[in-house]
Amino acid sequence: MIKKILTVSRDRTILLARNDVLAIAGFSVSSPRTPAEAVHILATSEVAVIVLGHSVPKAEREELCGQFREIRPDVPIIVLYDVEAEDDELADAFVPAHAGPEVLIQAIQLCLRERDSKRRPA
What we know:
Layout: E1 4-8, H1 12-24, E2 28-30, H2 35-44, E3 49-52, H3 58-71, E4 77-81, E5 93-96, H4 101-119
Helix pairs in contact: 2-3
């Protein structure tokens, strides 16, 4: 089953390039143009992982993460950062924005494995 990734960024050029890489890696990608659309997609679609780009301001990122957690607390959130990872308790993983695409793909795969291991009965 193809896993759907919800990607959120203010920089459409980088976002589209990132989406191409994720699609080549076998993921389905959805990239809303507004925060409200991102919330709607999460509420109405089967999303496996959320990726927030480094161009999303911290206050907006925190608000979005809070809304995402209210709707789907089981969906991992990965934050891409520019200079250094911030202490953001709402994110499940942090990836340097300048890292190669393989680093993001590895983070997505790790988040999915961790989520799936939590879902399995003991």
